[in-house]
Amino acid sequence: MSFELPSRSGPRPTTTDCAPHEQVSQNSPPEIHAEFKRRAFELPFVERRPSGISVPGAEALVLPHAHACGPREAFMIGREFAHVHPGYDGSSHLMLPLPVVEELIAKGWGESHPMARQGVIPANAVMAFAPRDEAEIDVMLRVLHTSWGFARGKLANPAPIQIHG
């Protein structure tokens, strides 16, 4: 799989190291958060629902049964493959193929979920940092589009994932 991101500028944002896993600095301006969400929920077949696993106010991207053809590790819970946190945070959690996880982290666009680092949830569960401007919306939509393709069964995960629980 070929997936390359530009390097994210500036220092990493501050995040919590436990659940709920939240971004506490470098959050999106309100208009950037609203635009990111508007465009995120335009993905074909995506249903917008309250997250089944995140904080109140988080909005999930859920695929209908007929389109949720990806492997088990492409989903957080049910057919929810990603969710966007409320505006005070602005980050997203999503499931990605492992090579994309490595690229996301290496280029500074996100981090592993703390529960993934502890081996409680799959290693391909990540936080993508909140976009700070229009250009970063485009990068985050590219990452989200990859998660969507993974959940639809359009992308392979070249390495086995240990599913816990």
Explain what this protein looks like in three dimensions.
There is one protein chain. The chain has a single domain, classed as Aspartate Aminotransferase, domain 1 (Alpha-Beta Complex). It is built from 4 helices and 6 strands; from the N terminus they run αββββαβαβα. It has helices at residues 30-40, 98-106, 114-117, 134-151, and strands at residues 47-50, 59-62, 80-84, 92-95, 110-112, 125-128. Strands 1-2-3-4-6-5 form a 6-stranded antiparallel beta sheet. α1 (30-40) runs parallel beside α4.
Topology diagram in text:
Layout: H1 30-40, E1 47-50, E2 59-62, E3 80-84, E4 92-95, H2 98-106, E5 110-112, H3 114-117, E6 125-128, H4 134-151
Antiparallel strand pairs: 1-2, 2-3, 3-4, 4-6, 5-6
Helix pairs in contact: 1-4
Domain Luciferase: 78-144
Pfam family, one: Luciferase
Region (Disordered): 1-30
**Beta-strand percentage range:** 5-15%
CATH structural architecture? Alpha-Beta Complex
What is the CATH level 1 assignment? Alpha Beta
* SS field, number of helical segments: 4
Which sheet architecture does the biggest sheet show?
A: 6 strands, antiparallel
CATH domain topology: Aspartate Aminotransferase, domain 1
Provide the low-confidence segments as ranges: none
N-to-C order of helices and strands:
HEEEEHEHEH
Q: For the terminal residues, how far apart are their CA atoms? A: 28 Å
Q: Please compute the radius of gyration using only Cα atoms.
A: 14 Å
Organism: Ruegeria aquimaris
Biased composition (Polar residues): 12-29
Region (Disordered): 1-30
Domain Luciferase: 78-144
